[in-house]
Amino acid sequence: MGNNAELQEVISESAIRDLVRRYAHCVWQKDAAVAAELFAEDGVMDTGDRPPLEGRAAILREYTQTFETSGFYPFLHNHVIDLLGDRASGTAYIELRAEVDGVRMEGYGWYEDEYVQTPAGWKFQRRRLNLAHYGPVGS
After folding, report:
1. What are the extents of the domains in the chain?
2. How many angstroms separate the CA atoms of 49 and 32, rounded?
3. What is the tens place of the pLDDT at every residue in 57-93?
4. How far apart (Å, rounded) are the C-alpha atoms in residues 84 and 108?
5. Whole-model pTM?
6. Most buried of the four, 4, 39, 41, 64, by CB within 10 Å?
């Protein structure tokens, strides 16, 4: 692999890691509009506990409603990325703190991600949350 290809891989990996960090930042800040923009137009968000949200517009609607009543505070770790040209896949591990309907919740698990490079940069094509544990604090 030539230097240019290696440099492009480093740039892509950095951009994908930033995408994942920006998503967590948007969730903390309850910024549904910017969170939705991190997905491809036909991107999918699958929380694992309801039907997947298909398309940026559906993600925006759901996040807007959810962020009005609940707070989610993700901490992301151990991000692994596999580049495949203008596509990539990855896993990011999550510790989650939340407040839902006045109840403090906690959990942990991982995101399974598919990324796509678009003219606007790297975006989530598909994101699936897998929680190994999620419940009231102390449960």
Report:
1. 3-136
2. 19
3. 999 999 999 999 999 999 999 999 999 999 999 999 9
4. 28
5. 0.94
6. 39
